[in-house]
Write a structure and sequence with these properties.
9 helices; alpha+beta; 291 residues; 12% strand; 4-stranded antiparallel β-sheet; single chain; 8 strands; binds iron/sulfur cluster
Amino acid sequence: MTLQELRQKLEQFVDTDEDHVIRPDYAIRPEYAGVPFFDAPLVCCADAEDPLFAQFQADPTIYGPFFRRPQEWLPGAKRVIAVFFPFTKEIRDSNRGKSEQTSDLWLHARVEGQAFLMKACRQIAAWLRAEGYRTLIPAEDEAFGMTRQFEKMSEGCPGFVSNWSERHAAYAAGLGTFSLSKHLITEKGVCGRFGSIITDAPVEVTPRPYSDPFEYCILCGRCNNNCPVGALHPEQGAARGKDLLTCAKYVDETRVRFAPRYGCGKCQLDVPCETGIPRVALGLDAKSSEG
Ligand code: SF4
Ligand code: SF4
């Protein structure tokens, strides 16, 4: 299967699958039933032996030895397919406003939308397996693990460490670059969800149209204007300017307030990176992130 064929099949799946919209049996309010989570997804592909994966593992300020390279998840792996599912305008519009609490639609998108994204990843894996290839979805594997290490942040280490990262896989695949708000800025912006599938299928590798991990973030600080707890500090630079502890504490509170759902996402809205690359949106250059 070519990447273009995969993109077309995935787009059709997103358009037609029953779980792509809020279902009436779990909708917080009856009028939310039928609201779709995502626009057409972006799909890119990294070489499983890209030196970046070894770098993520070797550098404790990125991930360190806890991180597993693609071949450590799936021996013989050739590719990492990375997907970005952008939230629809209806989902995004529902959650605007710093002082407002997280919207019901955003909570649905964060939880049931995420579940649909994983279903789409399983579908991609099924298509590849039907052609005789092997697949593995790290986020659903029993070996997947994540931990917090806020005490090491003063040494330049990340606050959260996991043995796989959807954003780092997407970065390696050419989908986009990291932001002050710790999202990945794609050609469709930051507002959405990421997933990845490791496979031995020889799908074509997409180019990375950037060299700096923070190339697309213009450090405008608009994301902090929307943050209810002021966790973003552009003056400290994109790599270290997010107070992860303060953000995590706030998001943890939403787990109590909105159980069984949670979420915030205010830093993804009303910002120049909401639905595109800021420099492109502002007319400063014409870079595109998808090959
Ligand atoms: S709002 Fe500005 S500073 Fe914040 S992530 Fe987007 S481009 Fe970077
Ligand atoms: S998720 Fe919410 S609390 Fe965390 S940085 Fe973004 S706006 Fe702030």
